[in-house]
Amino acid sequence: MAQIEPITGRYIHLEIEGRAARVYFEEAGQGIPLVCLHTAGADGRQFRHLMLDKEITDRFRVIAFDMPHHGKSNPYVGYQDEDYQLTTGLYDATIMAFCAGLELDRPVIMGCSMGGRIVLHLAGAHPDAFRAVIGLEAADHQQPWYDTEWLNRPDVHGGEICAAMVSGLVAPQGPDEYRWETLWGYLTSGPGVFKGDLHFYRADSDFRDRTDLIDTTRCPVFLLTGEYDFSCTPKDTMRTAADIPGVEAEIMDELGHFPMSENPEQFRRYLMPVLKKVAKL
Question: Is 187 part of a structural domain of the chain?
């Protein structure tokens, strides 16, 4: 039988650091805006399970957008003549332009992995712009655990290599269907995109010198990390939390680096209490 999901997809045209961007986003629900940031080399499909959760969408307008070069968002004009490289400044400008373009009033920002890293920056740089930030698999810094210099080559299938590299970050308890759905986002990633994202994650986002400046009375911070994540380890997250007065941090059982897509039922056990607190802010 045919079934139409309550998810709407559209494009918005933005100017980001002086460049025109055609950005694709999906949304569902109504209420408090909840903007979701995908992981490196992937796209907003990672958050589809949240958009299909009526308990969430009854109170939150869940919005997930594909960064330029990702998913259904176009790359910038002239991409063929340059290497894509994400920086803290560009990431910040993209998120702020998207929220302004949709005229969102103090949205909640929830990001995973590199999205979890940038929300720490946002909480410090724009504390009054957001109702709260939620960092999934988030820490102020991690030591790189793999080399990416060789990824963008014509003799290497970047998507397959990227999927293979991150496959071990999915917890063993995750349903097989969702494991492979999560990996598909990497298998289909554009050439050089994962490598470009990791410039931000590995080289341009050491926030250890600024997390203690976050004022959680102005922008509450919540951190949730899976116990099986060996990229952003529970130790990394709890070390980061120790430097942020007033932060709430929890380690999630039976989850890895992609909690919202690898095992959505297990993830919601941890997310729902956080969202209930956010709704009262």
Answer: yes
